[in-house]
User: Fold this.
Amino acid sequence: MTSISLAVDLLNRSLSEICAAADHSYAWENPRRFSAYAKRLHLLLNQLLRPAAPENLSPPVQTAVKGISGELKKADEALSVYRNRSKIFVLINCLSLCASLQECTLAIGGWLALLDSSIHDAVDLRKKVADLSRDMKQAQFKVTENEKRVQLMLQKEGQGRPTTKAVQSAIIMDLARALGIDSNNHTELLEQVKLLKEDIARSNSVSERRILTSLEKIMDSWSLESDVLTQKFDLNFEDDAQISPFKNFLCPLTKEVMKHPVVLESSQNYERTAIEYWFERCIEDGRDPTCPVTGQVLKSLELKPNIGLAGAIEEWINRNVEIQIKLSVQCLSEESPLENCVERVLDHIYRISEEHPSSRYKLRNAGLVVLVVNLLKDSSKSIGSLLRSKALMVLLSMSKDEESKKIMLEAGITRLAIHSLIGSSEKERESAVKLLLEFSSDEAYCTKLASEKGALVLLSTMAGNLEHPALSNLAEEALKLMEKVEDNVQHLAAAGRFEPLLNRLREGPDDIKIEMASLVGRMTMTNSIKELIARQSATILVELLSKPEGRSASLQALYNLSSLDDNATILVDSAVLPALTDILFENQDLPPELTGLAASIIANVVSKPGHWELASADKKGNSIQSETIVSSFLDLLSVASPQCQATILHILFGMASSPQASESVVGHVISGDGIKTVIGFLEHPEVEYRLYAFKLTRVLSERFGEDLASELKACNKLPLLKQKLQNDQSTDNERPDAACILANLPLSEDDVKTVLGPSFLKWTVTTLKELCQGSDRRISMPSLSMVEGLLGLLLHFTRSADPRSVNLIKEHRLMNIFRDALVLSSKPRVKYLSALGLKSLSESGRILFATGDSDPPPPHGFCSPLVFMCGRASLEHSTCPIHNSPCEDDSQFCLLKSNCVKPLVDLLLYKDTNVQIAAVEALSTLLVDSFNGGLKRAVEELDKLGVVDAVILLFEEARPGELQEKTSWMVERVLRVESVGQHHSLNQSLVRALVEALKHGNAVTKRHAQEALTNLKQISGVSGRGSSQIRGQR
Assistant:
């Protein structure tokens, strides 16, 4: 088939299909007009093509036929959209469809002109062709203004803009008008949207899908009936009591009763805000504003109030409001109203109050405010959280009426709202906060609310709860209002809101600062709050100390803040010490309570070590540990008020207890003749004075025992310490301090015999037994200090080798006591004292065995069953390798026979250096003898017990210092024994450690290291090639 034949065939099919469609199948004017042109064209072409075969047509005619055929095919595609797609789909594409038909029509008109010029014989046919060509060229296909508006509107809605209900209604009206459908015919409109959905299911256009989504939402909203038309009271009342609104009362756009009816030039009535929204949308879309109901393009946007209609609506509203109020009172006045009934009543009351504010007085006069409050009162446990939240929202709405607000306050709404702050639902809590926020606009109410128990705490908790941001913001807003009231500062601070207090303290005038400082002094605060206030206000408080009127309040506040140890640094940095010492030393006329507060603050600051030791303590820059300040405290101690004396003793004790200040402070106390002053308080009738006097004396005894002992003897106070120690009536803190003081004093043998005596030794052993009985139980701090003191006292009895003392040691088995204390206690000080006791007894034993004395059988005294003893004496004594003489198995002067060596070896691994030194010193007593083969026997025995390896390992790890010196002596001694030296001759770690000690140790250590290396040289060599190798390895 030729191309012309195909074109003719396509032309006939297209014309047949277009002409076969009846005009009524097209709902639009443009396809009907084109269809008319197609019918005329069909007749002309039939007349032209019937006489001859297509191939016989002239070339111009063939060209024209082909062109017409192609344009008809395009037109048929556009017409098929008009015939087969939904009306809304056509509206969406109306501009493109119109343009397509216009283009095809003009093109066909052009092809007909070519055909006209090619016909020469048939005049009538040529005239018809010319007429049709002219008509098609002049044809104008148009889209109506309404269709344009709707098409533009649909495109804009496809952008997902927010739309009000009024605008949605106007859109539906425009759409219905364009579709030729009544806007109230929901069924037909929904059917058209459904058809559009089917069309778009075959479309890939994103914009078309967005338009469909928007239309579906609009239709869903449009199909909902107004609350005015559906709301009813299910109460037993007159059936016709409620009057339904007239149709003209309802806004065509909102479907609700109009509040401000206005009339347009089209004579249509609308709610003012609704029609204004529609006008804004029209202007935004660049189209002329229209009347939504009539579609009329408006020349003027004037909105004339319809006063008559507004009056009729108001009368109708008043009548129905009165009916609803009466029904609400009836329901809420019942003894046990139904819950669903109460819910509907609350909804109606809320709607009346919100939508008709002028009717609030009617609700109030009908007693509904009181009824709703009583509902919360009487049914707070029986009604659910939903009803409570609705009741609160009703009261919130009614609180905009001042008289109603007064009624609520008198009825106790504040406490009810506070109770709802812990409601089970977020809605109830939010309603409660909103109600409190509404009332908080009044300053007097803010004060009352802040004083209500739990109100501020609950609001503060809500404000800090970020899981519910809306609720948090409301609570924060209410708190901000309350913070503006001066009287609320204390209540807010008690609830954890300190910012108002701090702001006033930092920025307020002096009288406000003093008031806030007084408040800080009286408050009970957590540690974190104390630190917060100290950081932000310490400098201000210190400045107030210089003002007589603010001194008392500032001292109270600083005292409260100084009770937190961590605040000491903050207060010192704020220059609190010079201000306080000025009060103590320079203002002698101040009331005793103020000087007492100043002293107490310093006592709190120095109670724990910190950087106060180097801080300036007066205006001249003297540090608190300087002689000037310490002397001033000592002088003040003699003349201060009784309330202040105990605090000054506390201060001196705190300063003397600091590792950084102890040496200088104790030295200044001694040089300033302060011992006599301090020990004078040891017998003070008040416990607090004695406690700090004993504590301070204990610290003095640790550094200047001889000076203290001399003063105590001169004042005959030594017996006092013994009496305090043995007196059960003494406080738990006095007895340990007395024991430690006596233990620290350098008592002579005569002092031990006369002041302490044998009976005191017996008491000490018995008391130790009681304290240490049941080693698995925890010992309190005073008891632990007591153990340390008693062990120190036992040391006094170990330093004498006279027969009487020896017998006492044996009788009470002191070596066993020290050994058991060493093993059972985990405290470094106890281990240290026990090791010193074992050292002292071992040294005494060396002297006794050297003089030929032997251990007699142990006595059977009171102490034989003590828990400190272990084993029983053997009747046959083997020769001791340490002392080279018979030692009983439980000897109180032999570390080996009393099983003390292993516990001492274990101490070499202890973490405390002082304990390690004491253990080394005790073990060193076993290596003193170097004649008659004593050293060789001792070393070999100790080697078997692992002592040698443990000491060498400790020496290798020790740094230059006392521990290195003590261990180097032992290493040098054991290396004198040939077998041991030979065993360690290849120990390069030991050689390196000895070389390091020779280079970096003190003089004594260097001598011991040199001798030890000399001993090793006899075996492996230290100089020459061997020495070079060692150095190279290092």
